[in-house]
Structure prediction request, 330 residues.
Amino acid sequence: MKTPVFVQLHRDSAEHIRQELIHGLTADAQPGGATVSPKFLYDALGSRLFEAITELPEYYPTRTEAAIFRVHARAMSQAVPKDATLIDLGAGNCGKAAGLFGAFCPRRYVAVDISVDFLRATLDMLQRQYPSMEMVGIGLDFSQALDLPAELGQPGAGPRVLFYPGSSIGNFSPAQALVFLRQVREACGPLAGSGLLIGVDLVKDATELEAAYDDTLGVTAAFNRNLISNVNRLVGTDMRLADWAHLALFNRLESRIEMHLVAQRDLTVRWPGGQRAFSRGERIHTENSYKWTVAGFSKLLLEAGFAEPLVWTDAPTADAGRFAVMWAGA
Ligand SMILES: C[S@@+](CC[C@H](N)C(=O)[O-])C[C@H]1O[C@@H](n2cnc3c(N)ncnc32)[C@H](O)[C@@H]1O
Prediction:
């Protein structure tokens, strides 16, 4: 049996992470006030809570995307090159990529994620299921730059299939998404056949969207509030879980779901060397999840340098779909 190779890239220093978080927490001047990047939702517990979210009846994206992969696997396998290096961005539990191994027959699987301990454990398990596949785990925060190791382009590595499912692209604003997709296009490398397979959540009714991010069992609330424990650990803040409530709302003007933590009373958050007062009702903005139209996202892919994408959705016509999977050749 092969063993997965792990590479940890560009880990920010603890002080750099602390400064980034303090900057966000004290950012009164920004529209919307305090912010914390959604990447801080994913400590080891956050990754497990996200797995639980994907099982919830209200959380349609995972199920809908899985159904699209199931129904259109054959058509996808005709577009996506075989024997490629499959590079899974924000791999999580690696389950979606593993589900496509049969259709795409990759020669190598590269899983990239910021949540390194979780990734290590899942990749070890996956290797036992696929003992002869070459597997590489990369610990990387790609929110600043998608710098993949040069060795991935070694001779004979085959074309590259960049895989970015789950509509994680929605965490980026449209301008940031364009910058990121250009980096993904670059990361596809020069070999013919390479490209990007991406899952994109589509604009829909606000009630369905808000329920998906505020389920009745409260798992998404726990996922959002777990960020408080992670920030306390990373910054030394003294935030109490009981003081913060989960809020999810659809901002139609921006076409995005927003997640916030809302202060339940007037309070002061303290950390070594600083503090910040929050009034009751004041928010910390923790995640955006932009919703796209098929036409809008196809245009973005073209602007980023990809070819006209192939599009599969859960409806007979793309416009009626709730979720889209797109293959864009590089
Ligand atoms: C919404 S989950 C999606 C997981 C899986 N790909 C899926 O579709 O079910 C987002 C994943 O991206 C990872 N992630 C979030 N921000 C990241 C960043 N800045 N750099 C690398 N990985 C990140 C998280 O740890 C998590 O595993």
